[in-house]
């Protein structure tokens, strides 16, 4: 009993001292402690343990991963962390769909704490790049809605889809082998995209059960958390606990969405055809959805629900302070006046919406608050550019502070494993190479 009191006093003191360092987050910290999950009492509540800052997030396609990337970018900026970013020749992705190598990383962004830009996962190269206590996280989405989204997003971009008469999803699924060429450029958007992004073989036949099992086990070994897009807030709660982050570290605005009119719902027949065409992805999804729910049940359904509610309330408050009580205005790219906020459009047939800032935002806001509001809704290509600029500045400043470096470069650990010239060869045009001939797509 008295131990419990001592513990509570300790918690109170720690909270107060925490607040002195993180002023302004009083409410959330208090609420989180007050409503905190029972399962957490056995170890320090989040916020009392140092935040884990070395994170590799594998950004998969069409899975709400742009929203996650934005969240990680903001976390990195707030905490002065380094985010590994692609060299210019790779565009804003690590030369996807080529398999990741550390040569794709811009030297001004080394050594990194966080990596989150699109890549095709390569474990050995990632481990070479990242600190050894890095926590690996990724996100999956239900294969039916995912494939429908891929089909619509890459309709004019991916040959396997372009061949289909009338852009008909039904026609594609009726005879996928008629349209799909496994070795063709961009074929990874047309089959088992998640498996491909995770470094697997998208064209293994469904009958190769041993391969599928082995692959699942490998993903399980590498990733501490596999988030599920359908349960995004719940996944964020798990992420927060895993990394000992605060509630305000997981606030987000949904990014890179289509207009509701370019989405469609699937008949059960179509959904099951999608699952069998993408059988490796379907297996991955089922396995990690089950594992997500197991992890959630360890925290306790009531606790998770409370945290989700807190998150949503905090989000509303943030929206209110940023955008005056309403969500920022959802607009098609052409209508967005601020070009820093225009999302990339895959084709004329789908409308990826973005946000515009309210015209009156500049009134009555500190520039710091304005900056945060802008970053919350900044699309990935622009944010990547902004981060590269600020990190390059910081890198050069650091360089000037170390005059010895001019004659005898002090090599940081990562440099020793990298070649001197971090130039990525630009794919010769016309060779069918898949790297960066077009602005590669977002999420
Ligand atoms: C704390 O919450 C109350 C109401 O819930 C609000 O009026 C107040 O501004 C909040 N304080 C801070 C520091 O966020
Ligand atoms: C980040 O760096 C800036 C400038 O060097 C410094 O003022 C700030 O306190 C740092 N923030 C953190 C969280 O370390
Ligand atoms: C991680 O790297 C550090 C420094 O290089 C080393 O001291 C530590 O033992 C390593 N930890 C693990 C778990 O490999
Ligand atoms: C494509 O659309 C046209 C006109 O709507 C229709 O006549 C034709 O049968 C369609 N083709 C396929 C393969 O669905
Ligand atoms: C994910 O798993 C939960 C728990 O087993 C289940 O209720 C839910 O239907 C699954 N979601 C999907 C989209 O399959
Ligand atoms: C901005 O304008 C909208 C509507 O015109 C208004 O509701 C909102 O309160 C204003 N916000 C600020 C910060 O002035």
Automatic annotation (TrEMBL):
Subcellular localization, as worded in the UniProt entry: Golgi apparatus membrane
Chain intervals for the UniProt region annotation (Disordered): 423-443
GO annotation, cellular component aspect: Golgi membrane
Principal location class: Golgi
Residue ranges, compositional bias (Polar residues): 426-437
Signal peptide annotation: 1-19
Database matches in SUPFAM superfamilies: P-loop containing nucleoside triphosphate hydrolases
A biological-process GO annotation: glycolipid biosynthetic process
UniProt entry tagged with the keyword Hydrolase: no
UniProt keywords, alphabetically: Glycoprotein, Golgi apparatus, Membrane, Signal, Signal-anchor, Transferase, Transmembrane, Transmembrane helix
GO molecular-function term, one example from the UniProt record: galactosylceramide sulfotransferase activity
Transmembrane segments: none
InterPro entries (UniProt xref): Gal-3-0_sulfotransfrase, P-loop_NTPase
Membrane topology note: Single-pass type II membrane protein
Gene3D superfamilies cross-referenced by the UniProt entry: P-loop containing nucleotide triphosphate hydrolases
Similarity remark: Belongs to the galactose-3-O-sulfotransferase family.
Descriptive protein name: Galactose-3-O-sulfotransferase 3
Gene: Gal3st3
């Amino acid at each position: 009993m008295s131990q419990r009191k001592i513990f509570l006093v300790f918690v109170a003191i720690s909270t107060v001292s925490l607040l002195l360092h993180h002023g302004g987050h009083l409410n959330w910290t208090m609420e989180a402690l007050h409503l905190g999950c029972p399962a957490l009492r056995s170890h320090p509540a989040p916020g009392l343990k140092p935040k884990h800052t070395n994170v590799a997030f594998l950004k998969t396609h069409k899975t709400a991963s742009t929203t996650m990337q934005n969240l990680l970018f903001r976390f990195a900026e707030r905490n002065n962390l380094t985010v590994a970013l692609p060299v210019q020749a790779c565009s804003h992705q690590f030369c996807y769909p080529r398999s990741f190598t550390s040569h794709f990383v811009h030297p001004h962004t080394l050594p990194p704490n966080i990596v989150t830009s699109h890549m095709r996962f390569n474990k050995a190269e990632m481990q070479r790049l990242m600190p050894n206590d890095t926590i690996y996280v990724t996100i999956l989405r239900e294969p039916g809605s995912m494939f429908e989204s891929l089909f619509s997003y890459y309709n004019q971009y991916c040959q396997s889809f372009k061949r289909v008469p009338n852009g008909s999803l039904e026609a594609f699924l009726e005879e996928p082998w008629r349209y799909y060429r496994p070795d063709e450029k961009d074929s990874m958007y047309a089959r088992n995209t998640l498996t491909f992004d995770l470094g697997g073989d998208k064209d293994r036949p469904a009958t190769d059960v041993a391969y599928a099992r082995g692959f699942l086990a490998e993903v399980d070994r590498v990733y501490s958390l596999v988030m599920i897009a359908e349960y995004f807030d719940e996944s964020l709660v798990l992420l927060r606990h895993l990394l000992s982050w605060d509630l305000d570290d997981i606030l987000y605005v949904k990014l890179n969405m289509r207009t509701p009119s370019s989405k469609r719902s699937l008949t059960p027949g179509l959904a099951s055809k999608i699952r069998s065409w993408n059988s490796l992805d379907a297996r991955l999804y089922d396995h990690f959805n089950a594992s997500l729910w197991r992890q959630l049940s360890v925290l306790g359904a009531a606790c998770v629900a409370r945290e989700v509610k807190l998150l949503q309330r905090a989000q509303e408050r943030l929206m209110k302070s940023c955008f005056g009580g309403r969500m920022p205005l959802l607009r098609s790219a052409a209508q967005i006046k601020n070009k820093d906020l225009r999302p990339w459009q895959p084709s004329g047939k789908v409308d990826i919406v973005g946000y515009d800032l309210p015209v009156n935002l500049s009134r009555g806001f500190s520039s710091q608050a304005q900056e945060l509001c802008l970053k919350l809704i900044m699309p990935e290509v622009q944010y990547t550019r902004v981060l590269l600029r600020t990190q390059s500045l910081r890198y050069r400043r650091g360089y000037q502070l170390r005059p010895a470096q001019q004659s005898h470069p002090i090599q940081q650990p990562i440099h020793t494993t990298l070649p001197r010239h971090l130039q990525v060869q630009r794919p010769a045009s016309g060779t069918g190479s898949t790297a960066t001939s077009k602005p590669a797509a977002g999420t």
